[in-house]
Specification:
about 30% strand, 7-stranded antiparallel sheet, about 325 residues
Length: about 325
């Protein structure tokens, strides 16, 4: 069984709080392959982001969920995604890309049912969504899956003779139309819509609304029938859709852990808007015992997962 390393409410999750009441951080705690720490900077009075770390003697799960439009989707993912991962992994004899995709799809479908039930009383829930970044380590293998623009970056000890002692390796894909490759991908899926991606308010946005192309939730941009619903039309300006303009299909990266792998940073986009992958990795490398305190300057949800050489060796020997 997986054991939760975090609890709610937030005031009980994190060890130290900032003077403005909007910062939390938790010092190093053990996980199956090393230690982890957490830092949160709350951008406004309603915390829309969620995060969690679950551990067992043989596995570690990490999740960062960056909500938008409200906290409902990120809270839902925080409650349901890991149980689905655990359920499907048990049914199929272990983690795999298929298990992860099934867990994401089940979470998306169940949240859709919540939206349908809640629509008469809360029509705005159809426009609530969450980016979703997940890491899972089992038997020395790392799985990273994501929707949206939260990011996982690995810090790896460099080979001798290199100028920098640590190298940054990005392990996730940013599903944000500010990235030209993502923008072209969205445009290719909608050749009959010349306004599928437009530049407005200083950034590229899908239908002039949202920057990310993948998420949990955002039902009104995935289900055309919601835009035609009179209840939702009373809430805001509906967007005429011929087909979904967003998806909940995760990008997945699978990688064996190596002895030179030192740590992983899982963070929402607030960190990466301010720091390059290399700069964030250098901060963690130089401050291994106080990671949270040194990253709290940035508006983000951050989980840093460190590895020990002995743990990685044991995992490889086990395999």
């Amino acid at each position: 069984m997986l054991r939760s390393c975090l609890c709610r409410p937030l005031e009980r999750c994190f060890g130290r709080r900032g003077g403005d009441g909007l910062m939390w951080n938790m010092d190093l705690k053990p996980h199956a392959s090393g230690d982890f720490s957490i830092a949160v900077v709350q951008a406004n009075s309603s915390l829309e982001d969620q995060g969690q770390v679950f551990t067992s003697p043989s596995a570690t799960y990490v999740g960062v969920y960056d909500g938008h439009g409200g906290p409902e989707a990120s809270r839902f993912v925080n409650k349901h995604l890991f149980p689905y991962l655990n359920k499907f992994a048990l049914e199929q004899g272990g983690l795999s890309a298929d298990v992860i995709k099934k867990a994401f799809n089940a979470t998306e479908e169940e949240f859709l049912h919540v939206v349908k039930r809640s629509l008469p009383a809360r029509p705005q829930i159809a426009s609530v969504g969450s980016c979703c970044l997940v890491g899972a380590i089992s038997n020395g293998v790392l799985y990273v899956a994501n929707l949206g623009d939260s990011r996982a970056v690995l810090g790896r000890r460099a080979s001798e003779g290199r100028k920098n002692p640590v190298v940054a390796e990005r392990l996730s894909t940013d599903h944000n139309v500010s990235v030209e490759e993502v923008r072209r991908e969205v445009e290719a899926l909608h050749p009959d819509d010349s306004h599928i991606v437009v530049y407005t308010r200083g950034v590229w946005r899908i239908k002039g609304i949202i920057q990310v192309s993948r998420s949990i939730g955002d039902v009104y941009l995935k289900k055309p029938e919601f835009n035609r619903d009179p209840i939702f039309q009373q809430f805001g300006n509906p967007v005429p859709l011929k087909r979904p303009v967003m998806t909940a299909e995760p990008s997945i990266r699978i990688r064996k852990l190596l002895p030179q792998d030192s740590f992983l940073i899982f963070a929402s986009d607030g960190l990466w808007e301010q720091l390059s992958d290399e700069a964030a990795v250098e901060i963690v490398f130089k401050n291994p015992r106080a990671v949270s305190a040194h990253l709290l300057t940035f508006f983000s949800y951050i989980i840093c997962l460190g590895f020990t050489f002995d743990c990685i060796q044991r995992c490889q020997q086990y395999n």
